[in-house]
Design brief:
By secondary structure, the protein is mostly helical. The protein has 4 helices and no strands. The termini are far apart.
């Protein structure tokens, strides 16, 4: 604020002997010019557009087919030997591989192998001084495997009994009540 309480001037004129020129009004409205319209309209009518070639489709003309596998082999030959080798018409017969019959592993044998692995693991841990830490866990797992082996053994023995009793009853035609 100035000492008289008025606001400070927005522009400061340099001090000189000349008198300052009057300032132009701060907000002068811009001069509005009317926009010009073109002499011809820009849009064409629909009939004119349809009469032209814009809506006609090109007919599809297929190209001759290519054997991509032959082209791949040809390119491989060119890259490998540096020459384009012309291959004669040789028919390739696909080789049929026999699928080897993989017998299904016996669960009893799997259990035997698992028990053996756990025994070996426990022996290794005892050799390293960690036997106390793993002994109860490994022995519990081994007992579970042995129990499963016993169940399989009972099922097999029952199946064998049934087979043997059928063979004996079928082969002996005499009445067992005699």
């Amino acid at each position: 604020c100035s000492p008289g309480g008025d606001t400070l001037p927005l522009q400061c004129h340099p001090t000189s002997s000349k008198e300052p020129a009057p300032a132009a009004p701060a907000f002068s409205p811009p001069v509005c010019q009317p926009c010009r319209l073109p002499a011809k309209p820009q849009l064409r009518p629909a009939k004119v557009c349809q009469a032209g070639d814009a809506y006609t489709r090109e007919t599809f003309r297929p190209q001759p087919g290519r054997d991509l596998e032959k082209e791949k082999e040809r390119l491989q030959n060119i890259l490998a030997t540096g020459k384009d080798v012309v291959e004669h018409n040789v028919k390739r017969i696909p080789v049929q591989r026999k699928e080897e019959e993989i017998p299904e592993p016996d669960r009893f044998e799997e259990l035997v192998n698992e028990v053996q692995e756990r025994k070996e693991f426990l022996a290794e841990m005892e050799a390293l001084g960690q036997g106390k830490k793993y002994r109860s866990i490994v022995l519990t797992e081994i007992s579970q495997k042995l129990r499963e082996m016993e169940i399989i053994d009972k099922m097999r023995s029952e199946a064998m009994r049934e087979v043997t009793t059928k063979d004996l009853s079928g082969g002996n035609k005499s009445d067992p009540c005699d």
